[in-house]
Specification:
Blueprint (H helix, E strand, L loop, with lengths): L4 H23 L1 E2 L7 E2 L4 E6 L6 H13 L4 E5 L12 H11 L3 E6 L6 H11 L4 E5 L5 H7 L2 E5 L1 H14 L4 E7 H6 L1 H16 L3 E7 L2 H22 L8 E5 L5 H11 L2 E2 L11 H4 L11 H14 L6 E5 L3 H18 L7 H13 L5 E5 L2 E8 L3 E3 L2
Parallel strand pairs: 3-4, 3-5, 5-6, 6-7, 7-14, 8-9, 8-10, 10-11, 11-12
Antiparallel strand pairs: 1-2, 12-15, 13-14
Amino acid sequence: MKLTSKTFRRILALIMAAALIFAMAGCKNNPGAKGEDVVIPQKKVAILVAPEAQYPEDYRAAKELEAEYPNSIVIKQYDDSRILKGGDPGIITLSKELAADPEISAIIYARATQYTRNAIYKAKEINPNIITTCIEPEDNIEEIAELSNLVLCVDWAKAAEDIVAQAKDRGAKYFITFFVSRTMSGNKLIRDAVNAIKTACEAQEIKFINDSSADTNSVQIEGAQKYVREAIARHYMNGDVEGKDVAVFSTDSAVQSTLVELANKKGLIYICPSFPTAYNGVGEVYDIAAPEKTADVDDYIKSAKAAVEADTTGLGKLYIYKTPLAAILLRGAVHSTFDLLNGTITAENMAEKVTSRVSVAADSKDFTVVAYGDMTNVFKAYQPGFEAIR
């Protein structure tokens, strides 16, 4: 049978359409590590991370996602945000470079440290259409929410109840919280955390003591650590606290190792770092081997217990958080950002889609994620779970 040119064109069109569908199925769809239905966008997504020494869980989780999506995710590391240097902070410089890259369509700030607000401003001056997603911002959360397409953070109301309950279980009569005035005054998220701890302490009949902390912007990391040592000594000298039934907490990541060391020296209670994670705090003090994957927290806890037990001089009542919350939020952020780029998240369905993405990443019935106040693009998440390692 002789084909007419018209029939031939129709057959050719069908073949090309089938080939296109096959190609899209083979290249664009990815079931994800937990079985998520993920459609990879055409352009790349950049993840900006702090150094592993500053936020180890964030860094490792980002590297794992880069390995999972090697053609779609680019990792850039900025300098430790707690150490100021001359010129623009690295997070701003890198944001401008990424915004100018035609292959980059979105930037995820795996930890939205200070200067993220300015970094997004500068990026949008270069590329007004760039998508931005932020996790646990240190800058003013209202401004970050206005600048960003999506913001994910810790549900500090739930986290505070969990942290204080653990302290009460170990006999805490006092709870000292250290905060940085700059972040406390400029960021409602930080104020929420401190106020939630205060409320939880009142409910548990624990004396709450709120102390400002030296800002690393002024005194560097060593200065902030020195201030905390002197402040705890002062609280004992002034009679604000007595004995060993004292829990210590700080919203400053720079002083977590100092709090653990003081807990070990004086027999105090250390539950949680400034962001609930297994990998800061206790992990900064002891030589604990990192697991192959951030999700393998149980393996990490076993190593942590062994390291702590080997320290026969330590007196602190120490805990580790069992949920890889930073990794969960970053994974949820990546898949939600993919959805934003593909147009499958809209203003109307954002709450449903984002909470689903983050919940699937958590894969636990105990995990909760809800909207943050009246901000329609901000969501807070938490899963209870601490384990005593001494």
